Amino acid sequence: MDEVAWIEARTLDIDTTRETWALAARHVLADTAGDYHAVITVADLAEAVQQRTRIRTRHAASLWLGDVLYRVARACHGRGEPLLGALCVGPDGRMSDWYSDTVATVRGDAIADPEQHAAEERLDCYRFHGAELPPGGGVPSLPPRREPVRRAPDTSRATRSAAPAARRTTTARKPEPAPAPLCPTCFMVLPSTGVCDNCD
Q: How far apart are CA 139 and CA 145, in angstroms?
């Protein structure tokens, strides 16, 4: 069977393209919701909807996927379903900026904690879309906490800190050589005489 040819998004109406991507995104997200605690990254969802529709774009997903997910959220809300877009996370497992705005626009809810809200919404998605849940019905899954970067203690520091500050030395950087003088007429490097051999 021949592979279906790609269609470039720029050759289509934007609204038609994004509605088509939204339909595909709904299917991809519903499939994702079938696995307890599963999520999909922005990059993977963007790739999946283009593959499913055979409509591709060279624009970064950050420029168009938020609108696609808004359309998915609107459809979910119209059907009385949990918002599937809560399953789409950034590379660090956190929600993108579009999430709070979308929930506020679609449901009229102001969100104080987008991560907690999305975790609870994801759990509703898993329940609604038939994921196999653990006894007790499952729990919301938050992204890993961002810990401050801590360096391992330097064991040799104690002996070094006793040394007087004056004994510490730094390596001086060599100064950059001054640019060679150029002839103002032909822009060739001038010889040490200062008279251009080319223009003489």
A: 17
Q: State the average pLDDT for the chain.
A: 84
- Token pair 């007790």 is found at 136
Q: What are phi and psi of 39, to 5 degrees?
A: -140, 170
The backbone region for 73, taken as left when phi is positive above 0, alpha when psi lies in -120 to 50, beta otherwise, is alpha
- Taking 50 as the threshold, does the pLDDT of residue 129 lie above it? yes
For the purposes of burial, counting CB atoms within 10 Å of the CB of 85, is it exposed (0-12), middle (13-18) or buried (19 or more)? buried
CB atoms within 10 A of CB 186: 10
pTM: 0.71
Could you give the maximum distance between any two Cα atoms of the chain, in Å?
93
Q: Where do the DSSP E strands lie in 36-101?
A: 40-41, 55-56, 88-89
Ordered by start, the domain boundaries in the chain are 7-128
Q: 3-state DSSP call for residue 55? A: strand
d(CA 84, CA 65): 13
* Residue 140 contacts residue 123 (beta carbons within 8 Å): yes
Residue 50: phi and psi, rounded to 5, are: -70, -40
Q: Is 60 helix (H, G, I), strand (E, B) or coil?
A: coil
Distances (CA, A) of 178 to 175, 181, 194, 197: 9, 9, 15, 21
